[in-house]
Amino acid sequence: FRKAQEGKKKVVLAGCVPQAQPRQDYLKGLSIIGIDRVVEVVEETIKGHSVRLLGQKKDNGKRLGGARLDLPKIRKNPLIEIISINTGCLNACTYCKTKHARGDLASYPIDELVDRAKQSFQEGVCEIWLTSEDTGAYGRDIGTDLPTLLWKLVEAIPEGAMLRLGMTNPPYILEHLEEMAKILNHPRVYAFLHIPVQSASDSVLMDMKREYCVADFKQVVDFLKEKVPGITIATDIICGFPGETDEDFQETMKLVEQYKFPSLFINQFYPRPGTPAAKMPQVPAAVKKQRTKDLSQLFHSYNPYDHKVDERQRVLVTEESFDSNYYVAHNPFYEQVLVPKDPLLMGKMVEVNIYEAGKHFMKGQPVSDARVYTASITRPLAKGEVSGLTEVSKR
């Protein structure tokens, strides 16, 4: 941002760290944005003012769920709508900076979320991602819950479009397992759930203040695997959390060996300034590095998709691959399938034969007799085109 300032650019710095620690020297003279005050800060900065709106917006003393959902936006991918269903969370994890910045749970009302979803489909979107620090905790502050929201959203999804659920921590999804299994089996919902475990040692989880034990995590995973055949469970693991012993780490290795998670986010512990974990006795850097390496080697020792070669799968095509050689699609389990770059496939749901599998993807060839589904109610917005503009604002 220093380079931007030198080039006479207007700069607004956003994120959890500046909100949680706004008095850092490197932030002096900059406009700083809280999580949900985008429009106000940008408007004032353009006028030449340096502003800091870091407080949480409230209505009659009750915290609101963040920026309004009906604000104009530009989608990174015109085919994918990303909807935040709540901000903040109910946990107080000792390593987390996000909670420090975003505070307690604040959920958006169901009708506002459904309206945003409907609008996105009317603008050509074919896939919705729900995001949150913890989707499982949705609604606890406003007298509702996640399954109630999801059943309402499912009603709004047109044929050929899909809904992907975001991250949920184990404690809050435990109460809704039966309903969640039904929802994850719905043909327009990806059978995919991101459930961070962080460690398979109960003592480490206690020091992290994660508010569950390993048995709780296994109960969630085992139940969903039984009730939602083929479901993809993604998880996160932190290597070298303060106090983690070799025995603790081996428990984590055993968990990964047991479940062979197809998607695993491995993080070497880094102490965030101002968090309780930063003040705990630290694991030596070399040990953290070695544990991260050992877990990575275990993760790369198995191939989760080899048995799917020769399967016929239904996939939704939404983007181009990084190397620009393929289009990227996802099957009902949100597993990545690379398909030929045929412009007629983009934004469509089509059946393919899987002919090759790698560690993180499969490759599929559209079958000749497959029906192609077009989810879009209308033409998708052009890349960079603004969503949600009224006729007045367009003028």
Automatic annotation (TrEMBL):
Task: Enumerate the catalysed reactions.
Answer: N(6)-L-threonylcarbamoyladenosine(37) in tRNA + (sulfur carrier)-SH + AH2 + 2 S-adenosyl-L-methionine = 2-methylsulfanyl-N(6)-L-threonylcarbamoyladenosine(37) in tRNA + (sulfur carrier)-H + 5'-deoxyadenosine + L-methionine + A + S-adenosyl-L-homocysteine + 2 H(+)
Keywords tagged on the record = 4Fe-4S, Endoplasmic reticulum, Iron, Iron-sulfur, Metal-binding, S-adenosyl-L-methionine, Transferase, tRNA processing
Coiled-coil stretches = none
GO MF term set? 4 iron, 4 sulfur cluster binding; metal ion binding; tRNA (N(6)-L-threonylcarbamoyladenosine(37)-C(2))-methylthiotransferase activity
UniProt superkingdom: Eukaryota
Bound how, and how many: what does the cofactor note say?
Binds 1 or 2 [4Fe-4S] cluster. One cluster is coordinated with 3 cysteines and an exchangeable S-adenosyl-L-methionine.
Alphabetical list of Gene3D superfamilies matching this protein = tm_1862 like domain
Q: According to its record, what are the GO cellular component terms? A: endoplasmic reticulum membrane
Q: Where in the cell is it found?
A: Endoplasmic reticulum membrane
Q: Taking every annotated instance into account, which residue ranges of this chain make up the domain Radical SAM core?
A: 75-306
Root EC class: transferase
User: What Enzyme Commission number does this protein have?
Assistant: 2.8.4.5
UniProt cross-references to Pfam families, sorted A to Z: Radical_SAM, TRAM
Q: Give the protein's function.
A: Catalyzes the methylthiolation of N6-threonylcarbamoyladenosine (t(6)A), leading to the formation of 2-methylthio-N6-threonylcarbamoyladenosine (ms(2)t(6)A) at position 37 in tRNAs that read codons beginning with adenine.
Similarity comment? Belongs to the methylthiotransferase family. CDKAL1 subfamily.
Read off the NCBIfam families from this record. MiaB-like-B, MiaB/RimO family radical SAM methylthiotransferase
Q: What is this protein called?
A: tRNA-t(6)A37 methylthiotransferase
